[in-house]
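step 4 of 6: structure.
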Amino acid sequence: MDHDVLSIGDLARTTDTKVETIRYYERAGLLPAPARTAGNYRAYRAEHLARLSFVRRARDLGFSLDHVRELLRLADQKDQSCAEIDVIARLHLAEVDRKIADLMALGGELRQIVGQCGHGTVAECRIIEALSPN
Amino acid sequence: MDHDVLSIGDLARTTDTKVETIRYYERAGLLPAPARTAGNYRAYRAEHLARLSFVRRARDLGFSLDHVRELLRLADQKDQSCAEIDVIARLHLAEVDRKIADLMALGGELRQIVGQCGHGTVAECRIIEALSPN
DNA sequence: TATGCACCCTATAGCAGCTATAGGGTCAAG
DNA sequence: CTTGACCCTATAGCTGCTATAGGGTGCATA
Ligand SMILES: [Zn+2]
Ligand SMILES: [Zn+2]
Ligand SMILES: [Zn+2]
Ligand SMILES: [Zn+2]
């Protein structure tokens, strides 16, 4: 492909994203549909690369696709207040903190149960006992 | 329904599980298909209630359906060693610990990013900056 | 006896966020 | 002119449910 135009494979390699994922993001409205070559290949430019990098980074930080879409939209309104961005990020952080708390409670319970297993027969196993009713 | 037989709704109420979820567990091989009444209603017994309670408890502890199936199978071999049960539980605990570690790293990064937002315009927002490439 | 209503049945589709086929077309090198 | 790497669309699959749609059952009440 011509220089300053990237194929979907180029974009995939550069951003460490699977080709199918990029097409999926396009369908999902996270990436604009790029121009096409004569042979109907997607022809990306630097702006698409930047956009996809943004998406990848946001996904790595755990933002949902809905949040990413919102963040992309807001990021384009350069002269507006960033209050909404802040809200999304804080909400997401709260969500992460909540998940950590949930998992810590779970881990504690599991550790306790696992620690009681005396490695005998199933009939005596404290793990099974902990899972069984009454 | 006759006493010592439970309808799916009874089971759902008793175990705080949705009716559809119980049917799903049956399809997924977690619960044995119960006998049917003349009107083709599922007719559960105490053993089914115990089984579903076990499943619920294991799910609450975060075990995957695959793990739960395995645990159910192993739990039935009362005179065998509980070593495999132990392995599954320890693997699962390790998985939970790993998720916690991942989320803590994520949370730290997010907290750092969110803490830098100066509440100005989008153009100056450190959150957007943190998400943008180069 | 009829009607209403709560409950049950199956089958199928939908959710997130991809990933993996199947069944083709394009394009440059040898 | 063929090989092989790449691209295209469409569709199905994954986990663990949940929510319809379109019926049938069973019991109480008018
Ligand atoms: Zn979020
Ligand atoms: Zn044990
Ligand atoms: Zn596990
Ligand atoms: Zn900001």
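step 5 of 6: annotate
 - The first helix of chain B runs from residue 8 to 15.
 - The radius of gyration of chain B is 23 Å.
step 6 of 6: archive
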